[in-house]
Specification:
single chain; mainly alpha; Growth Hormone, Chain: A
Length: 427
Amino acid sequence: MKGDENTAGGTGAPSGLQLDLWAGIWLVGVLSTAQLVSQFLRSAISVIGPDLVTELNLSAAGLALLSSSFFLAFALAQVPVGMLIDRFGPRLTMLWSTVLAVAGCIVFAFGPDLNTLVLGRVLMALGCSSFYVAPLAIYSRWFKPKYFSTVTGIQLGLSGLGLLAATSPLAFAASTIGWRISFVIVAVLALLSGLLVLWWVSDDPPGASKPEHKKENLVESLRGLAVVSRTPSFWPIFAMFCTNYAVVITILGLWGGPYLAHVYGYDLETRGFYLLVLALSSMTAAFAWGAADRVFGSYRMPVLIGALLTLAMLIWISLAGKMSPGTLFVWFLLYGLVTGYPPLLVGQARSMFPPELVGRGLTLLNLATMGGVFFFQFATGAVIEWIAPNQTVYPLAAYQAAFALQAVLLALSIGCYLWAKDRARPA
């Protein structure tokens, strides 16, 4: 292949090996399709939430359970997924995961009650549990460390198309063919994504020698988790991972749609439009924030800037009354832009672990990410239920309390993150 010094040559490649630019681009594109499916499934409840409440007579706690069950199952799967990635490789782990994701979509599409829908969400989560960290493990072998945050930002940006699909397109599909048939279509797309990974993805770049990792037994694998947890600055960064994604998906994937319906009276298509603005700005921001480490020469400062701006936005919406349509548009647009800093946090985390612990290190931190989403969604649902018990239309005060709770939790994680040592960006 034609070499390109500015492209790759990951930790799994021999010294001096250069990779073809287009091979790297194609790799990121294919792997992003899997996370695209995952992003859609994570956030799909928001736009159809009011319809599910009506169809199934769900309470606020029931709707929160339906959404948050995905993230709880996803979080619990992270430790075994990390062990599987380090032992059997990321590609094979993704292929087996795809089977569960497809099954989950089918169960959800035909579920007659809340319990069956929750089962479908759990299967979806187990299936999607490797779709983020497995590609990161592959990138750590294909690309030079200094490009890791940038590549991660590109994947998050491309996979953000899944967030877009879960807004206006899903609203349109739900109003025309119904949300159940829509999820059957998603099952087919998830299967196609798995076939692309099967045909086109390899764990290591062309010409690279495969890393020789000892086949660890269960005890040794668990011991590796202990090593990861003792890494300097691990726990302050873990605290930041608990909130960096939760503050986005709790609004985009759960309460944004009901908030727009109950407080503003917006219909399915209008709700989809505002959520589309948030998803599109968030997707665009991932590209820009992913390269911010090159501007600052480190990770910590841009992460703090993004987190503090996010905190300010949450304080704004928790204190504001009913906004005008224009102000509401501006808030959704800006919120997506300021919450795009997770690629930097992932790059900082990746720099902490040796190659043989990358899978377990990243999945343990992803456990924090998805566990944080579960807690955010469950806790905000409990707050809304407490303020508006046995209601299917929730008042503005209930949503303000939910947004304020998110702000408090984010502030706590920022305080913990201040104890993390800065890490210089790899040269």
